[in-house]
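Reminder: ligand-aware prediction takes two inputs, not one.
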Amino acid sequence: MIRSNDLAGVKSIAIGGHVRPDGDCVCSVMALYHYLKKEIPEAQIDVYLEEPPVVFQILEDIEVIKSEFNTDACYDAFFALDCNEERLGDAQPIFARAKRRINIDHHISNMGCGSEWVVEPEKSSTAELLYEMMDHSLVDEEIAKAIYLGIAHDTGVFRFSNTSPRTMEIAAELLKFGFDFSALIEETYYEKTYLQSQIMGRAILGSVRFMDNRCIVSMVSRRMMEFYCVGPKDLDGIVNQLQGIKGVDCAIFMYETGTLEYKVSMRSNGTVDVSKIAVKFGGGGHVRAAGCMMNGTYHDNINNLSQEIATQLK
Ligand code: AMP
Ligand code: MN
Ligand code: MN
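Here is what comes back for the chain with manganese (II) ion:
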């Protein structure tokens, strides 16, 4: 699907990923960009993605990403990575117009979309899946870096249960390219600005445990974000921090995106299938990490989510 023999006649390509792109999404998009440049040098390749978090400027050619989607271009092929069609945001009409609509993803909640798809939920990340689809003789240091970093982000740096023996083998193969993996991970995953650390502290201080302390929830309002001069991209890592608290089976973090509108992130240690809950509310994800948008008051949303959790814990 990403090899030249399968892309005969394809002269124009677009690559896109999900709204609010995370590490796996940004890195997968860039890895495929670099790879297709080598695999089909004569093709025109455009990348459509919402502006990535600034830390990903560490990736070569990240500036090729177009965050303006007002085009009526019709591409021979559009690759939608790390999401289904609905989550492409404003790139959705460009995808819909493409002659070949190719979907590559690892979300269990994605049934596949477009004209052809590969969705493998057992893969740690879209980056890992892409690597398995590549001709490895074409993989160079830039591609290796992007794949490695995408995997590192979606596995919580090879820590989450989606990390398989094969994930580690791939990481080992990629490390042979000799890039500074330690700096890549430190600067894109662990390092937080002072304000990002402050809002994380604030979110944890304001958290509430319920259901015998097995669940924890916290919320950041628009007013709080204004006070700390931060945006949604600065809230990464808060939900994982909540999930890491001893005794917690399920963590919920939400931030206000509009009037009575919240972006919800859920994490679980496997006791609760948070993907099922997210799907109920129009979102999706994986068993241990999922998300959705919710309308209503903060308390109504918690009530609705906790009912679903309670049903599963029974
Ligand atoms: P988040 O907490 O938003 O970072 O999401 C956790 C996991 O669920 C990631 O793998 C996301 O890609 C996925 N996810 C989040 N929101 C949605 C959604 N609305 N639809 C499908 N998957 C989602
Ligand atoms: Mn993602
Ligand atoms: Mn992913």
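Residues 12-190 form a domain with the inorganic pyrophosphatase (n-terminal core) fold (CATH 3.90.1640.10). The mean pLDDT is 97. We will return to this case in the review session.
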